Amino acid sequence: MHNHSLKRQLKVLTIPVFIEMALVMLLGAVDTVMLSRYSDNSVAAVGLDNQLISLVFLVYQFFSMGAAILCAQYIGAGLRKRLVQVVGMALVVNLLLGLLVSVLLFFYAEELLLLMGLRPELMGDGLVYLRLTGALSFFQALSLTFSASLRSADKVVYPMVVTGIVNVLNILGNYALIFGRWGCPQMGVEGAAIATAVSRAIATVLLAVIHFKKHIPSFPLDYFRPIPWRELRNLLLIGIPAMSENLSYSLSQVVITFFINQISNEALAARTYCANIIMFVFLFCISITQGGDILVGHLVGQHRHQAAYILGNFFYRWSMIITLTGSALLALTGRYILGAFTDNEEIITMGMWVLIVDFFLEIGRTSNIFAVGTLRATGDAVYPVVIGIIFQWLVAVGVSYVIGIPLGYGLVGMWIGFALDENIRGVILMRRWRSGKWKSKGFVKA
């Protein structure tokens, strides 16, 4: 009976998370699609910028991911005061971190892009987009925390609705400001940056209002006197490993993008188009894992480890089936999809081969997304980091560089290197999940 009701609950959680994640990805993809009507060069510049922005958002996820896992375990154990303390600490720290990073992105945008080897002809577009989206990125730091807190309490519909509203605003803003419609100036890349940054700010305000009305109405000062160091320590125990693994992955992607930039502008544009298309393939895997990990956290808080294991295996199996089906369809229809973005034959051919290789990559990536997220939800956060850092740099960066540049196989060769990395890590992390060593790692002791 319990398993049946958990699977039903998983469905209730996964669908809103899936829609929300699709809309979040759409927010980034919309800039790419609309700018592709403007120029391939603007797509290449914004693609490189978004590597840095993604890196920044992962830093912001540091405390919000920790808060989500702790909240889920505390809700499972009925510890309301500790729940309020964790969310309060996460909001304060993320705000301070967000303001610091936003200032750095605004003032050092040019130095960062030069460090990434952005070509001179792309610098104008790259600089304006990074300065504008970077300076207001602190809104995303708060947004991620509010969203994670709501999700951990099974209130997944609210972040989904907010993301939907923001997407509509972003599309309208892009249309008006990129192409100069409805009496607005034609601003190209600058217009896309303004629309995206303002949309994210509006999302934060909406999520804050909902969070105070529906989840935690207030943060009583006596809960934070003295400062609840135990909760900050627990946040760090999850957050530092979570951020380290994600940061390592994103930094490795930044280095890889630097290598791709050495190949050609076409390779950089093809990578941007393919990355935006592929995101939608592993989207279900991210969604069901996020939904499932809330329930796994609740079960671990209640010390129901066997139920957590059965539930985890259930949603891993569905992740793999759906992701590989989507990836196969993408490999078969890649030429037509890429042709809708660009008429450059070199970009289309390169991208088509990337999508074929990516089918094999997704086998490993599905295992990784599941194992990293679910092990973290149980409190077993350090092991995935160690494995991640070793293989991301040795294989994803090292091997893909050798195949792609010295051996001359270009972007497709580099994708083969990425596939090797994802699959090796996937096998190792799934062994960890099946070993059951995570059962002793929870934050709520019996």
The number of E-state strands comes to: 0
Protein structure class? mainly alpha
Spatial gap, N to C terminus: 24 Å
Main sheet: strands, sense, barrel: none
| Low-pLDDT regions | none
Q: Strand share of the residues?
A: under 5%
- How are helices and strands ordered from N to C? HHHHHHHHHHHHHHH
Helix content: over 70%
Annotate the secondary structure layout.
Layout: H1 2-36, H2 40-77, H3 80-107, H4 109-115, H5 120-135, H6 138-152, H7 157-179, H8 189-214, H9 229-263, H10 265-278, H11 283-301, H12 305-341, H13 345-378, H14 382-404, H15 410-435
Helix pairs in contact: 1-2, 1-7, 1-8, 1-10, 1-11, 1-12, 2-3, 2-5, 2-6, 2-9, 2-10, 2-11, 3-5, 3-6, 4-5, 5-8, 6-8, 7-8, 9-10, 9-14, 10-12, 10-13, 11-12, 11-13, 12-13, 13-15, 14-15
Would you kindly provide a written description of the structure presented here, covering whatever features stand out?
The chain is 84% helix and 0% strand. The mean pLDDT is 83. With 446 residues, the chain is mostly helical.
Gist of the model:
This protein is an all-alpha fold. It has helices spanning 2-36, 40-77, 80-107, 109-115, 120-135, 138-152, 157-179, 189-214, 229-263, 265-278, 283-301, 305-341, 345-378, 382-404, 410-435. Helix 2 runs antiparallel to helix 3 (80-107), helix 10 crosses helix 12 (305-341) and helix 11 (283-301) packs parallel to helix 13 (345-378).
